[in-house]
Amino acid sequence: MKVANLSSTLTTNNSNYSVSTALKAELENKSKSNNDDPFIIADLREVRKRLEEWRNHLPMVEPYYAVKCNPDPMILKILCAEGIGFDCASQEEIKLILDQGVSPSKIIFANIVKTSVHLQYAKERKVRLMTFDNVDELHKIKIHYPDAEAIIRILIQNTKAQYSLGDKAGAPMSSVGNLLQEARDIGISVVGVSFHVGCRCFDPISYRNALTQAREVFEIGKAHGYQFHTLDIGGGFPGDPKKDGSIAEVARAIKEELHANFAANVRVIAEPGRYLVASAYTLAACVIGRRLKDTWLDGGNTKDRLTEADKKWMYYLNEGLYGCFSRVPSQLIIVKPKILLYNGEFSYRPDCELENQLLEEPRYDSIVWGPTCDTTDCLFKSISLPELEVNDWLVFESMGAYTTSASTVFNGFQKTKLHYINSV
Ligand SMILES: *Cc1c(COP(=O)(O)O)cnc(C)c1O
């Protein structure tokens, strides 16, 4: 993992400091040194704000941050200092968190299929709490960590999440009885129930249904001699307060269901990922090349023959699908640019959408490519943009979740550098 380059930190006590100011300052730096590399402004204040909001809305639910979403060391430091828990899926993630001095009791090993080596590591480091959803995993746990505390992950169907996890994880309700019987027979301690409604779920009903189902599993547990004490309501919470709205509605539904269906002594945890970090990152990328589609075969001569309406621009950005945008094709993240620097002019306004920027400029249907030589490295196959030039910049907000953590260095393009601020 890339550790923060603290020498380039823009942290300041200037009371008006904002993401916008930081973007502008960094563009100026870059322009001085003729550097067109993409960069990210990471606003750590935003992470604190999200956690504060969580605690206001869901004080009875302990967050266990899903590390895979963004293991940025500066973010982890804040979350560790705040004393929250962590959802880890592998040995390295567990190690990363334990190395910050977090107690193993504040970690849930929330991967329903664990590598034996990772399980042995969990045992060595006393990370007891872990999820399962199938018989083979129970046997694996029995072999490598018989004293583990297991949580049964159940499948929630038909949720209104925008990115479903149900194909890969979760025991169907019809299998729960057999799984718990098997666990009982081989002597595994099952202590609770977990679910994940899917990512980007803004629908309170989905959480209500999931909680009703979890409540049933508490009963099935009882029938198999288990007294569950932990309920894990997973992740999926909306991550972008500007576009997705607040968690108020979802939180209200969860609170009501918890109150109505679960005893007060049941410990309730959640595994928010995107919710805590998405809004913290703002990514700026530079237009490093362009050409008109269909004109390159004859060296651009067709340009004159094209009518304005036929013009289709192709732009090459220096961030793409092998970098921070790797989860765009799967729609785990949805991105939309704004214009940051246009013709040397700083054009970013936090409240102004792309559609309302540079209204006097004609728009063209455009294709936006990433920087690698792979033809699939295409960010937008069709997007309406004003005519951009090389050295213009685009900006993408809410880029903190599933971006840097899922980016590669394919074709030699290095991971995008971070600049940390604490906005006021
Ligand atoms: C990815 C994941 C999360 C986090 O999901 P978000 O949608 O980012 O909140 C939580 N729990 C598990 C088991 C996951 O795999």
UniProtKB/TrEMBL annotation:
Keywords: Lyase, Pyridoxal phosphate. Its cofactor is pyridoxal 5'-phosphate. InterPro entries: Ala_racemase/Decarboxylase_C (IPR009006), De-COase2_N (IPR022644), De-COase2_pyr-phos_BS (IPR022653), Orn/DAP/Arg_de-COase (IPR000183), Orn_de-COase (IPR002433), PLP-binding_barrel (IPR029066). Residues 45-278 form the Orn/DAP/Arg decarboxylase 2 N-terminal domain. It catalyses: L-ornithine + H(+) = putrescine + CO2. Pathway: Amine and polyamine biosynthesis; putrescine biosynthesis via L-ornithine pathway; putrescine from L-ornithine: step 1/1. GO terms for molecular function: ornithine decarboxylase activity. It is an enzyme of class 4 (lyase). Its EC number is 4.1.1.17. Belongs to the Orn/Lys/Arg decarboxylase class-II family. Homodimer. Only the dimer is catalytically active, as the active sites are constructed of residues from both monomers. This is ornithine decarboxylase.
